[in-house]
Amino acid sequence: MLDTTHDTLPARAGVGYKPQHFSQILDTPGAVRWLEIHAENYMGDGGRPLAQLRHLAERFPISVHGVGLSIGGETRLDPDHLARLKTLVGWLNPASFSEHLAWSTHDSHFFNDLLPLPYTDATLTRVADHIDEVQEVLGRRMLLENPSSYLAFDESTWSEPEFLAEISRRTGCGLLLDVNNVFVSATNLGFSPQGYMDAFALDKVGEIHLGGHDEDTDDHGAPLLIDSHGRAVVDPVWALLDHTLAKSGPKPVLVEWDTDVPDWPVLEAEAQRAARALSLVTA
Amino acid sequence: MSVTQDQFRRAMLDPAAPVPDGLLDGADRPAGRRFNVYRNNVAVSLTEAMRTGFPVITRLLGQQNMDGLSGLFLRAHPPASPLMMHYGAEFPAFLEGMEQLSHLPYLADVARLELALRRSYHAADAAPLAPEALGAADPEALMQSGLTLVPAAILLRSPWPVHAIWRFNTEPGAPKPTSGAQDVLITRPEFDPIPVLLPPGGADWIAALMDGHSIGDAHTRAQDAAADFDLATTLGLMLQGGALRSLITKKD
Fold first, then answer.
1. HSE of B49 in the Cβ direction (CA atoms, 13 Å)?
2. Contact B82 A68 (CB under 8 A)
3. Which of A4, A95, B105, B149 has the fewest CB atoms below 10 angstroms from its CB?
4. Does B18 touch chain A if contact means CB atoms closer than 8 Å?
5. For the segment A188-228, what is each residue's pLDDT rounded down to a tens digit?
């Protein structure tokens, strides 16, 4: 295990780590106080990815964010993938581990996307069982992230905030609140993002995400926002962050930018803006 | 009306399939083209993974052709694991099976070279054998010893000029490929894999070492394959690239 002293994420600004920013993060981190990595990119046996991660972990608290566990899958969790996560988390000893309320694998086929779930009692039991298993295998508490929704399931009987709160209650897991996802889902499905936040179990939130989205329209000409992580965070999402932080108090806030990744100063400026939002909040 | 993940998956992988009943917009109307967001995300992310994983094939075919081919490939071979670093392992065989690409018979081996570079990039770290370790050994005992390779060293043999094709499409000003077989050893001196062109017999010598033969036996085999095999040249390339892991001395 790496000997790092970062056992929690600070209630400061962080960014999703991209290898092209490696040197600049170490030389001019600016407002950035912690980093997040996608677990699956660091499951090779060696080489540059793991060497860079070792360097970064000496300087920064690291959040390991899984995108491939398929926690909402109808079938059992992939034991091989869970074992790989255990190896990575065991070696890195990160400040946080998180995954998504979504599925991505079916019949041993991985779709490389976060696919949606109906919010039913059956889904709740299954997801809670899978989270119990993850927390047991990893020997740590995990955070579960709210998804971006483009559609709803007729069969759903729970609202998303209540569904997540109940999973947290049953499993003891924390929640990762993606403010952009809330904005995207609220726009796409026509609910109030502030109302969502007011119903959310903010005391269980261990981390907040921000990111950029694209704009499209559906069959009826209604706005359809796509969670692309390919541009700057928009003003209404920053406003929703302020609304949320005013209720939740300071939290670790991460800016995600995964496609059309900008130069370091642009990403660092987004982190600065998150840091300013945090500076206005009292604990 | 409930939608199983199997129904969701089938509709997602087939753009012509109807959107499953029970998926709605925010006003309880059928989800319609909203479902295409998932179709697009899956197709686009896997197509991009293929483009990133096979940059030379993309260059050779042109991006539009490559994207079309990736669309066919990802339906035939969806990723079997969430480790996208390994995605595309079946691509060379897939290329070989494409009738309409039979006029480009070297494509599959170029794809194998690109896969091998990726495998090397993520391979386990290992301290390479220091040249002094060979210099210090008794020459006769040395010929009876074996050599192992570091995990990042990968041997690739081809009836096509794969090294020249790779260079021509990655290095500005590289010479135009001419016909002929080429053998390549991928080395990773630090973190960046390099395809090294092997001289005649070099691949035979390395393959024999990898099969557990002694340096001397491997030498004989290499000379059988190529009379002008020069051990010093191949050994030098391997030492320079940090491709050797350890010397296995024969215990009498």
1. 24
2. yes
3. B105
4. no
5. 999 999 999 999 999 999 999 999 999 999 999 999 999 99
Domains in chain B, ordered, with CATH? 1-104 (no CATH), 124-252 (3.90.930)
Cβ of A154 and B80 within 8 Å?
A: no
Name chain A contacts of B3, Cβ cutoff 8 Å: 118, 153, 155
Q: What are the residue boundaries of the structural domains of chain A, listed by start?
A: 13-279
In the 8-state DSSP scheme, what is residue B198? P
Assign A150 to helix, strand or coil. Answer: coil
Q: Is B3 on the interface with A (CB under 8 A)?
A: yes
ipTM of the complex, rounded to two decimals: 0.94
Cα separation, A13 vs A15, whole angstroms: 7
How far B85 CA sits from the closest chain A CA (Å)? 7
Q: What is the pLDDT of residues B26-58, one digit of tens each?
A: 999 999 999 999 999 999 999 999 999 999 999
What class, spelled out in words, does domain A13-279 have in CATH?
alpha beta
Contact between chains at A81 and B81 (C-beta distance less than 8 A):
yes
A70 close to A105: Cβ distance less than 8 angstroms: yes
Does A190 contact B27 at a Cβ distance shorter than 8 Å? yes
Cβ contacts of B1 on chain A, cutoff 8 Å: 154-155
Q: Long-range pairs for B173-176 at CB < 8 Å and ≥24 separation? A: none
**Mean of pLDDT values over A168-187:** 98
